[in-house]
Amino acid sequence: MKTIDCRNMACPAPVVTTKRALEEAGGETVRVLVDAGAPRENVARFAANRGFRVAVEEADGGFAITIGSGEGAPSAPAENPARQGRTVMLITSDRLGDGPEDLGRLLMKSFIITLLDQESLPDRMMFLNSGVLLTTEGSEVLQALEQLGNRGVEVLSCGVCLDFFHCKEKLAAGTVTNMFTTAEALLTAGSVIRL
Hints:
Domain UPF0033: 2-67
Distance between the termini: 44 Å
Number of helices: 6
Strand order of the largest sheet: 8-7-6-5-9
Radius of gyration: 18 Å
Organism: Geobacter sulfurreducens (strain ATCC 51573 / DSM 12127 / PCA)
Family: Belongs to the sulfur carrier protein TusA family.
Number of domains: 2
Protein name: Selenium metabolism protein YedF, putative
CATH architecture of the largest domain: 3-Layer(aba) Sandwich
CATH superfamily of the largest domain: DsrEFH-like
InterPro entries: DsrEFH-like, Se_metab_YedF, TusA-like, TusA-like_sf
Structural class: alpha/beta
């Protein structure tokens, strides 16, 4: 079993390091040492989303994530994931447009609520910068985001952005993500819609 130490690494280094280790391991089990919080969540989610078996345990003042081959674990990276045609909606502000702030917030609220009436929905909604404020306590669109999540839309908020706005503990819709997942999602999407 290969062990890698990703403690004290800033986002997205733990995920990137884990990805490389899994590619080099050739099916061998990999044990990843990470800090609590976002690193533990991001690495475990990254591996699980790719079909690996994931076991998490406390170890050495942090956590050890054991990643082994699962039924769906890829033996080699997919050649061109963009052909899957996933739609990613990138929301980088809590308001829509460049006009008055109050109008921009009203437009964003209306847009997100209006998505509930659409037949075609994005596969992922990724919230960055002040866009993460839409996914935290006090947001007027939390119910709509929860309903979109129930319809299969993956709602992801940037962990660095949540930390910057001091609201990670107030996340109320979706899950925390990292820059590696964001970059990968954008680069492999069939289409990206930026608001």
